[in-house]
Design brief:
By secondary structure, this protein is α+β, with helices and mostly antiparallel strands. Helices cover about 30% and strands about 15% of the residues. The protein folds into two domains: about 20-125, Roll (Ubiquitin-like (UB roll)); about 125-145 and about 155-255, Alpha-helical ferredoxin (Fumarate Reductase Iron-sulfur Protein, Chain B, domain 2, Orthogonal Bundle), CATH 1.10.1060.10. Helix 3 (about 130-135) packs parallel to helix 6 (about 190-200), helix 6 (about 190-200) runs antiparallel to helix 7 and helix 6 crosses helix 9 (about 240-255). Its cofactor is [2Fe-2S] cluster; [3Fe-4S] cluster; [4Fe-4S] cluster.
Length: about 260
């Protein structure tokens, strides 16, 4: 019996064979540009490269004025969120092998800043409105009464209740993928609601009512149109739309 093979699977040699990829990047420098414009760069790459590596190449070897955010480069900090081929992703998590054109055709990758937030330069956007919405939902443990004399004990089931929403890294991929947020920047947005969910359903927290009151207005959870863009865009796999619906149900039935 022979082992099954995958026709399109690259050989070990192919994994390290240099290829040339075209990055089509939406550039904007407020000091010289009146409008954003596209510029293309041919960049050497390997199948195992992450897109962030190619952005560094443009910055280091082609155009030092190119600007983008990045920090940890391991999908934890969320700094390098951008539109990659029209979809919000973290550049440090996107592998070239998943973007290459089929049948040996030339690969062109379009890269633009995330939507709904003002572009300051190139892929660098103003995150202040995003973090203002995050801070507005009081993303910290709220308790009343005397300080406890021992650790606040929580069962595994209670911890599991909000486990999914603890994964948020505040990259803004979900919020900036939301059509409501694009058209109405005053909407709290999915990320803020996800972080409210994380505390609303925490059995140790006593501030659920406060947060539900904050989200129970015209720019809160009721602005969500359940398009699932946010869930699709989340690089951590959070069920964002489900979390928003659970917050809605908590408001409707007055029960956490």
């Amino acid at each position: 019996m022979t082992a099954a093979t995958t026709e399109d699977a690259p050989s070990a040699a192919d994994e390290h064979t240099p290829i040339t990829v075209t990055l089509k990047i939406l550039r904007f420098n407020p000091e010289v540009d009146s409008e954003p414009h596209w510029e293309s760069y041919d960049v050497p790459a390997q199948r195992t490269d992450r897109l962030l590596n190619l952005l560094f190449y443009v910055k280091d070897y082609i155009d030092g004025t190119f600007s983008f955010r990045r920090s940890c480069a391991h999908g934890v900090c969320g700094s390098d969120a951008m539109q990659i081929n029209g979809i919000n992703r973290l550049a440090c998590k996107v592998l070239m092998k998943d973007l290459l054109a089929k049948d040996g055709k030339k690969t062109t990758i379009t890269i633009a800043p995330i939507k709904g937030l003002t572009t300051l330069k190139d892929l660098y956007v103003d995150m202040d409105p995003f973090f203002e919405a995050y801070r507005a939902i009081k993303p910290y443990l709220i308790t009343y009464g005397n300080e406890p004399t021992r650790e606040r004990i929580q069962s595994q089931a209670d911890r599991d209740r909000f486990d999914d929403t603890t994964k948020c890294i505040l990259c803004a991929c979900c919020t900036s993928s939301c059509p409501v947020y694009w058209n109405d920047g005053s909407y709290f947005g999915p990320a803020a609601i996800v972080n409210a969910h994380r505390f609303i359903f925490d059995s140790r927290d006593e501030g659920a009512e406060e947060r539900l009151d904050i989200l129970n207005d015209g720019e809160g959870v009721w602005r969500c149109r359940t398009t699932f863009n946010c869930t699709d865009a989340c690089p951590r796999g959070i069920q964002v739309t489900k979390a928003i619906q659970e917050v809605k149900r908590a408001l409707l039935f007055k029960r956490v």
